[in-house]
User: Fold this.
Amino acid sequence: RQGAKPLSLNGCDINFKNIKFAYYDAKERNIFNGLTFNVPAGKTVAVVGGSGSGKSTILRLLYRFFECDSGTIEIDGQDIAKATVKDLRNSIGVIPQDCVLFNDTIFNNIHYGNFDATEEEVYQAAKDARIHEAIEKFPDKYETRVGERGLKLSGGEKQRIAIARAILKDAPILICDEATSALDGATERQIIDTLRSVSLDRTTIVIAHRLSTVQHADLIVVLNDGKVAEMGAPSDLLQNSDGLYFEMWNRQQQQDKEALSIGVVEEEAGRGELEG
Ligand code: ATP
Ligand code: MG
Assistant:
């Protein structure tokens, strides 16, 4: 934008104010219809809601891949639409839902987070993202080429490279979109611990499907019908038995239980077959 100003950051308090938004080729369908919430400086806010409720769209608007139709997003009181895109994007580290890697080496893919970082810092970021050991086991180690869009890596490996990249970028705002969705349970817990320590002194937005992964958030925002349906501390939301969060939480607990019992039945059936 002509006359765009630099962003001056002071803790990074983020304010979504009455956002209305529809995608350009689907203007008849509003994704947001007056979305308002605040992410206090240095706090972690989790955004939850059904598939298609607009969680990733929040990230796209904050990063200015798209502009809001009306309403403003402010960082430390400054409208991001009037700030330079360079400053804005420098201030945000993103761990996307679907991470696209460059057809280059693992080293360069992580280094992309911050080209000023030293070789040692790249390795440290990989260690923090729990991917260093796995990389060391590849024949070409950090020189391994990842293929088109990273197709030669597993979903979980790609995700951890995205996390390493964001750790290396070391931006004051962090957004994680389903950051641990492709990981197994044990790795997921390790990464959640890592992300918690990375987000400690940062303003963080975590987008999550699995509510159990965001119990540490300071605040949870529940999206529904293009608006905030409910907002509060995780423990407070669980007290409200008429609320959407309470319902989602119970449904997921039930699903987890069912998945567990199906797993046990299958395992027993498998053992029977082997013995038979
Ligand atoms: P999920 O949990 O499945 O990731 P989400 O809450 O992140 O879902 P979004 O990706 O924000 O959902 O999408 C919100 C809605 O906007 C969806 O119904 C989607 O079909 C629509 N949408 C997303 N991107 C575009 C686009 N580029 N053009 C048009 N519609 C889009
Ligand atoms: Mg999404």
About this structure: The longest strand covers residues 14-21. The mean pLDDT is 89. The CA atoms of residues 215 and 234 lie 6 Å apart. DSSP finds nine helices and ten strands in the chain.
